[in-house]
Design brief:
The complex is a heterodimer of chains A (141) and B (143). Chain A has 141 residues and is α/β, with parallel strands linked by helices. Chain A is built from 4 helices and 5 strands, in the order βαβαβαβαβ. Chain B is an alpha/beta fold and 143 residues long. Chain B is built from 4 helices and 5 strands. The chains are: A alpha/beta (141), B alpha/beta (143).
């Protein structure tokens, strides 16, 4: 049987669950000899009109830090990861775009991110990905 | 390094998508030397659950048995042990309950994105969606 996990996309947002997802991605990458692609999407929100520039700057900085952190963790386990920092209004569509352009076979996400209600439910991003994406999705709980 | 997924649950309903899910599970199990648990659920509408004749639906029972046997054969060809289980009840609810039951010790659920109910092409199946939300274990949705 052919290896069907050649490239794994791991969208990170710095939350605990996304760290868990990365951990799992590293394990799978080890077992299947696959590449990891890290992605951070800075969300352009429409709320803060006045200080948008500053806000985006902060997000970008945070995203870079998160990506570097994730890359380091992957490197420790001997896996080189490619990382992307994107900006967009819609996080899910950005993730899908990358998944398509990099031909990812598997997307690994945590079940909830940094969204508002982090209690019981599946996060909005994970949920939308499950509904819309064209490639397989592993949701880490 | 071996993945820590020793016991993989694959809910089967006989659809093409669930077979794809099974293939993926077999692929994973080969890496981790795991065991696959195939679960087939006979959908019983709530009212029949208390009605004695509700269980006398032989056609679906036969179909379920065939699905499970096929799955067993498929796994055996690749050298994977497959334990088959069948239950009757509401598919989504019972899958989620099976997963969350600690005694079953499931590490991963592999599920096809859609099953056999209508509105097939566009959406994530209702059962997959339910399991996604309710399961406390990782879920792999195969598209």
């Amino acid at each position: 049987m052919t290896n069907n996990f050649k490239t794994i996309l791991v969208p990170v947002d710095g939350s605990r669950c996304s760290k868990k997802a990365l951990q799992r991605a590293i394990e799978i990458a080890h077992a299947f000899d696959s590449k990891i692609i890290l992605l951070y999407v800075a969300e352009k929100s429409s709320i803060n009109l006045l200080d948008r520039k500053e806000y985006m700057g902060m997000l970008r900085k945070f995203g870079k830090k998160t990506l570097d952190d994730a890359k380091l963790r992957a490197a420790k386990k001997g896996i080189t990861a490619k990382s992307f920092l994107k900006e967009g209004r819609n996080i899910v569509s950005e993730i899908e775009k990358i998944a398509k352009s990099e031909k990812c076979d598997l997307v690994i996400v945590g079940n909830k991110g940094l969204g508002a209600i982090t209690g019981f439910f599946l996060g909005s991003v994970s949920n939308k990905l499950a509904q819309h994406s064209n490639c397989s999705l592993l949701i880490i709980k | 390094m071996v993945i820590k997924t020793k016991k993989i649950l694959v809910p089967l309903d006989g659809s093409k998508n669930s077979i794809r899910g099974l293939d993926m599970a077999i692929h994973l199990a080969r890496q981790s030397q795991g065991v696959i648990v195939a679960l087939s659920i006979k959908s019983v509408p709530g009212i029949y659950a208390i009605h004695p004749l509700g269980f006398l639906d032989f056609n679906t029972s036969k179909e379920m048995k065939k699905t499970l046997d096929d799955a067993k054969l498929r796994a055996a060809k690749k050298g994977i042990k497959l334990i088959s289980k069948s239950l009757s009840g509401d598919p989504g609810y019972d899958i989620a309950r099976f997963v969350n039951n600690k005694r079953n010790g499931i590490d991963l659920v592999v599920i096809g994105a859609r099953g056999r109910s209508s509105a097939k092409e566009l959406f994530l199946g209702s059962v997959s969606n339910y399991v996604l939300h309710k399961s406390k274990k990782p879920v792999l949705v195969v598209k």
